[in-house]
Design goal:
The chain is an alpha/beta fold. It folds into two domains: 1-82; 83-216, Trna Endonuclease, Chain: A, domain 1, CATH 3.40.1350. Helices cover 59% and strands 19% of the residues. Strand 5 (199-204) and strand 6 form a beta hairpin. Helix 1 (3-82) packs across helix 2. The longest helix has 80 residues, at 3-82. The radius of gyration is 38 Å and the shape is rod-shaped. The chain starts with a helix and ends with a helix. The relative contact order is 0.09. The model has no long low-confidence stretch (mean pLDDT 80).
């Protein structure tokens, strides 16, 4: 074979190899493109599934919150009927209220259904629903299952008279914090309590909370 023929054969083989390589590259690119499309489709389906999952979780959270609120209200109603509302609902919440609303990190004294005689011989015997005391603060709770404005008036009069010192002389000079509690309160009663500078503690969504904190403070 002549040198020219050999060169032509080598050239043809080289071109064939190049063409084959190009074909493989094109095929690989096509495969990659197809896989990328499939991946994008899968990602799109995944995003859709995640969106549905988030929606379902949102609905579940809303349902759970509603169930908790319903359960607490039913528990409150039952405690009201059984006459244990102070012990079961109000008292367990007051340490948290004292801490978050009035800065009482540690209570020096906490008691439920306190029955005391007046230090004055002629004073009447009284029962206090909940008493909570921390440094410089005396929290006096009155709880009613069916609250009326006259109940608020009685508490306000007791606070303003200073008669509390007839029962708790050791806390004279402390800031008094009157808290009126009930399972349900309408807006008019809350407004009346606010005018009397008494905190309104009632069931708010899933827990007991003071609903006129800014108005009284």
């Amino acid at each position: 074979m002549s040198a020219t023929a050999e060169k032509l054969t080598y050239l043809e083989e080289t071109l064939a190899q190049v063409a084959y390589a190009q074909l493989k590259t094109e095929m690989s690119l096509q495969t990659l493109s197809r896989e990328m499309r499939e991946f994008k489709d899968e990602m799109r389906e995944f995003k859709n599934e995640m969106g549905e999952f988030k929606d379902e979780m949102g609905e579940y959270k809303d349902w759970s919150k509603d169930q908790i609120i319903l359960m607490n209200r039913q528990w409150g109603d039952l405690a009201n009927k059984m006459g244990t509302f102070v012990e079961d609902i109000v008292a367990p919440n007051l340490p948290r209220i004292a801490r978050t609303c009035f800065g009482c990190e540690d209570l020096d004294y906490f008691a439920v259904r306190v029955k005391k005689k007046s230090c004055k011989g002629d004073g009447p015997r009284r029962e206090f629903d909940v008493i909570a005391v921390c440094e410089g603060i005396f929290i006096l709770n009155e709880t009613k299952s069916s609250p009326e404005t006259r109940d608020v008036d009685k508490l306000a009069a007791f606070v303003e008279s200073g008669a509390r010192f007839d029962y708790f002389p050791e806390y004279e000079g402390y800031r008094i914090v009157p808290v009126f509690a009930s399972l349900y309160m309408d807006d008019s009663l809350v407004a009346y309590l606010t005018r009397k500078k008494i905190y309104a503690l009632t069931l708010k969504e899933d827990t007991m909370d003071i609903v006129n904190l800014n108005g009284v403070s």
